[in-house]
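Entry:
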Amino acid sequence: MEMDRQRPEPEAEAERPEGSPRPASAEHLTIRRILVALDASTDSRAALHAAAALAEVMHSELLGLFVEDINMVRLAELPFGREIRFPAAVSLRLEPLEIERQLRMRALELRRELEEITRARQLQSSFRVVRGRVEMELLAAAHDADLLALGRIGHSVAKRGRLGSTALAAALRAGQPVLLVRPDGDLSRPLVVVDDGTEAGARGVAIAASLLRRFSGIRAGELKVLIWAADDELAYARRQLLVAALGETELTADFQHFHEFAPERLMELVNRQEGGLLVLPVSAAGLPSETVRRLLEDARQHVLVVH
């Protein structure tokens, strides 16, 4: 692995390596609407606060969405539907009217929380309740937003501590950038971005630079760029291209080069940066799916997925 710290120079203009995309300008990043998926979980509340912080610096509207899980409603209508209450492990029959009441109360609580946060930050916001399959409704609603934010785990006992199925589906299938939030994440730490030589990687670097330029909470931290390339010559060419693209931002960038996609090695490299946000490109031509999933599962920071 090769390491180098370099301040971009505006006049630098590198020759673009064959097959490598030109990084997009950070000046042209626009996020007008941020959709945040809400439920009663700790991760969901962390996602709301992180999304509100981004909305404030990006001058974005915050869209809250609560999905009434149709599977839960249907289960309550079945005679054998049961609810296990912890920690007493008491088994009770699911009552349809009680489920409907709980959903209404949860939606009301989430609406109030969204309104309180956006009022304190002077943001425009809206709140919507839909009923259906959580994954499908969330992906459908994301089409009307520029960024989707949600908790990594969600409101689930079975998946405690692991990446939730909804979070995984959103990260891999949404057409927009997806922010997966950890309750213990810290946006004041340095920002880490993986450049895998794809269009998604180039967009990720542009987004990372734009966030650093606008977000005063993490501007003091360095931009740490992890460049994948098969050899040192290609890595150097990609680095010079990024230096030229970052020239207008006046950011200090720490470039590191890695040769392999092995999940364990890349996971170790990412966590060694002690960053607050990992910008991760996801595309068919980039990081292998096994490596992507490992990073989504075990990265110690918030993860912003860019397609």
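The first helix runs from residue 42 to 58.
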